[in-house]
Write a structure and sequence with these properties.
The complex is a heterodimer. Chain A is α+β, with helices and mostly antiparallel strands. Helix content of chain A is 36%, strand content 26%. Chain A has a 5-stranded antiparallel beta sheet with strand order 4-5-10-6-7. Chain A has a 4-stranded antiparallel beta sheet with strand order 11-12-13-14, sandwiched between helices. In chain A, strands 1-3-2 form a 3-stranded parallel beta sheet, with helices on one face. Chain B folds into 2 domains: 77 residues, Beta-grasp domain (Ubiquitin-like (UB roll)), CATH 3.10.20.30; 72 residues, [2Fe-2S]-binding domain (DNA polymerase, domain 1). Chain B is globular. The chains are: A alpha+beta, B alpha+beta. Chains A and B meet through helix 2 and helix 6 of A and strand 4 of B.
């Protein structure tokens, strides 16, 4: 399969890239890892006039922590996220999600920024970003701004990014004591789209009750989805099996899956319950210092 | 494609083009390529390096795996223009001075192939696995090969081939002159 014709630019600065995007007025696509974009072009699902390859722009690939945030540069490859020992130790939800992205060869190219900004409800990182309460930094013609993950996903393949904006950094509130998180995913085989995925993140009080929690769902709605009621049902409660079971069943209510080759809607909804229970149980265990 | 009055297809439009410099298996190439040219087509059709295969053409099977600046990538999901200024290594670049690479030897000795179609991609991914884990566990080999499909072998012999290569490389690097690697008599 041959992609359609397009003009190609490889800018070496963000300003140059934004300028190019502006020049094409929405008829250009940003090329990062290309592991979704190039297959889409080959299938002719999109025929943009130009590709703006951001891989030559320096300083967009990094993983670092400061006093407030874990900062991940948009061009960080999925395998770099997976291999980071700091992430493994402090943000296990991201290691689990990265390990679930496509396969090891695709992960060498595929980027964290691409995964979160493509807007595909089947991508694994968006649900994690919702659960973690992440922020996305974007650069556009009028400068930089940050967008909360909760306001980012508007509909399938549609995000809050303007046509001339580029996602530059993902900011995740820095890990704290008594915080735990996990990502649980069901897939038919490696590299396939998920049947269902559930991301859970929570904080325990010194007494051991749940202070706050976030739950994100993959592949069961037009976008990655927050299971708000489910998360709020945990607030102030002791994380007993019953409390987790109830939250998991509320998470099922937030899912609006459709029946397809990966299973009937009822099955997927039931699996949201199973995976939510697993992810929450593991998150609690981690918040208590285990697992 | 537009059909001319003669009923024959008109000559296809081409372009736009982009100038690239790329090193493949150590040899530098400078050329103009169509921007939409896939890396795998550049390697096979312009450079004649047909060892890199096209299997599924949907970035699932991994038959087209090559190293791009040392990283295994599926060349059916990479544009040739993305390789500008970078180095590519294909299966043709594995053997050196007429000697098979330990990975190639492993696939031969351990029957790591039957029809052979997936083998070039398998070997390139194996190279990447051994770079990340010089002494890989079975688990690391199996998971490392997740992006490469084989419809003949059932994988077991491929895993043994990778293990063979790891052993061979280890033995080669432990050769003479390295103290502490050879067991001395009388001291355990």
């Amino acid at each position: 399969m041959i992609p359609p014709r397009f003009e190609y630019h490889a800018p070496v600065s963000l300003d140059e890239a934004v300028g190019l995007l502006e020049r094409y007025g929405g008829d250009a696509k940003v090329l990062a890892g290309g592991q979704s974009l190039i297959p889409i072009l080959k299938l002719r699902l999109a025929e943009p006039r130009a590709l703006i390859d951001i891989n030559r722009i320096p300083n967009l690939a990094y993983i670092r922590e400061d006093n407030e945030f874990l900062r991940i540069g948009a061009l960080t490859r999925a395998n770099e996220l997976l291999d980071s020992s700091m992430i493994q130790e402090k943000y296990p939800i991201l290691t689990e999600a990265a390990d679930d992205i496509a396969d090891p060869v695709v992960r060498n190219m595929g980027t964290v920024g691409g995964n979160v900004s493509h807007g595909d409800p089947a991508n694994d990182l968006p649900a994690c970003m919702l659960a973690l309460g992440a922020w996305f930094a974007a650069r556009g013609p009028r400068g930089s701004r940050t967008i909360p993950a909760g306001e980012f996903y508007q509909s399938t393949f549609v995000t809050a990014l303007e046509p001339s904006e580029i996602l530059t950094e993902i900011r995740i509130p820095k890990a704290r004591v008594r915080q735990g998180n996990a990502y649980s995913k069901l897939e038919k085989r490696v590299g396939d789209f998920p049947i269902v995925g559930v991301a859970a993140n929570l904080f325990l009080s010194p007494k051991g009750t749940i202070e706050t929690a976030g739950i994100g769902l993959t592949a069961v709605a037009p976008t990655a989805r927050v299971a708000k009621e489910a998360a709020e049902s945990l607030h102030g409660r002791e994380p007993t099996e019953d409390v987790i079971r109830r939250a998991a069943s509320l998470a099922m209510g937030a899912a609006q899956p459709t029946s397809d080759l990966r299973g009937p809607a009822d099955y997927k909804r039931a699996m949201v319950g199973v995976l939510a229970r697993r992810a929450l149980t593991l998150a609690v265990k981690r918040a208590r210092g285990g697992g | 494609m537009a059909i001319a009055e003669s009923g024959m297809p008109e000559e296809a439009e081409v372009g736009p083009f982009y100038h690239i410099n790329v090193k493949v298996n150590g040899k530098a190439y400078e050329t103009e390529v169509e921007t939409r040219l896939l890396l795998v087509h550049f390697l096979r059709e312009q450079l004649g390096l047909t060892g890199t295969h096209i299997g599924c053409d949907t970035s699932n099977c991994g038959a087209c795996t090559v190293l791009l600046d040392g990283k295994a990538v599926k060349s059916c999901a990479v544009l040739a223009v993305q390789a500008n200024g970078r180095e590519v290594r294909t299966v043709e670049g594995l053997a050196a001075d007429g000697n098979l690479h330990p990975i190639q030897e492993g696939f031969m000795q351990e029957h790591g192939l039957q029809c052979g179609f997936c083998t070039p991609g398998m070997m390139i991914t194996a190279l990447q696995i051994l770079e990340r884990h010089p002494q890989p566990t079975e688990d690391q080999i199996r998971h490392g090969l997740e992006g490469n499909l084989c419809r003949c072998t059932g994988y077991q012999h491929i895993i043994e081939a990778v293990r063979y290569a790891a052993e061979k490389i280890k033995r080669a690097s432990a050769k003479p002159g390295r103290p502490g690697k050879t067991r001395k008599s009388g001291r355990r």
